[in-house]
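Crash report, auto-generated. Payload:
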Amino acid sequence: MIPGDFQPQKPTGTQLAKLGVLGVVLLGVFIGIVLVLTFVISSWLGRPVIFGHDGPDQPIEFPHETHVEELGMDCTFCHRTVEKEAAASVPAAGLCMTCHSAVGDDLEGITKMRSLYEDGRSIHWVRVHRVPDHVHFVHEAHIRYFSEKDGVEAKDVCATCHGDVASMDKVQQNRDLKMGDCVSCHKQNNAPTDCVTCHY
Amino acid sequence: MVDSNKWGMVVDIDRCTGCQGCVVACQSENNIPINLEEHFNQRRAIQWIRIERYWEGEYPDVKARFIPIMCQHCGSAPCEPVCPVYATYHNNEGLNVQVYNRCIGTRFCANGCPYHVRFFNFWEPEWPESLKNQLNPDVTVRSRGIMEKCSFCVQRIQRSTRESERDNEVLEDGDRGLNPACVNACASNSLIFGNFNDPDSTVSKMKEDAMQEGGRGYRLMENLGTDTNVIYLRKVDEFVVEAPHG
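Recovered output after restart:
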């Protein structure tokens, strides 16, 4: 061993302890950053990124599949105002009762719906598609434009934004429905992009 | 049928009785929060349209003058160039538009406006529980910290434009669905709304008639060159105020 040569010192016990603490802290910070990023990204996308992206739980598990694919009902049969008004209405329990006063006796959801109907209460569906308050989306105008353009019926237009609702277990949002989404579609279709078209 | 619309209003001061019906109609149509006494005392009350009152003459020959004042939708608006975020701009229908979601509340526009028709939301708007269901769903409820002003009830313009397109009809001048709430509420027809680009519309004819030499028409603060879309018609006095006989 040459005198003056560099010899790595053996770490003392306190130094090792400090390193350990530093490692734990760094790990904690890393996990924290990942959690924050997950939260930020999922709130930006409007849906969870880790636990899949099923729609929210509804008070009654309404099977769109049974009604639309098996029975062949139109979207517009229940969401009645969609061709005439700004909003696509969700029907009251009374409309369900036109059929379900007679059919579906042994199903849990039907029993629940009937008891709500008899008490004169409404079903508190969880809203899936929501744009901010300062955005005024008009279903009627969009349905009219696309059904005229493509020469299809109103019920075939819905999937443009809402996706294939009939095959969804729980209804979930299909497009991100942010302003960029709206504006790019408006530009493609030569629709007005004046702010006051939607914001008033 | 005209290519583009230029919305505007004619206000006949001679007909105005100062009943404030337009003010009430505007407050309820446009979800304007209730102005309490302390809001007025702080000069922070929000009134998209207001009736200004002036006294003329001396007792006993006193005359009350009423002037309804709303956003003049200026062709060259002083409020527009000062906005750092383009929250207020002029659209191709002659409207001075306020975009609530862009506004960051600098209040430069309110300082620029010579008519005092822009209002800042100093508080989160509140309504009593019983009035929550009367809010107009077609109008955004403005939150604290943003500017607002008369929009010529653009929600009604949008709706009637859409409906006329749907039914393949020409947008009818003076239609109640198109008219702003104040115009429909005016009992003496002193407010008339319409399209200045259409030479056959009521407002165009009135403007042409009033703005010629010797006509009753004038614009508020015309010397500022704001090129407003609201035309006022001067009051006609049947009896000129004179000093009482000695």
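Post-recovery validation: Residues 71 and 150 of chain B are 5 Å apart (CA to CA).
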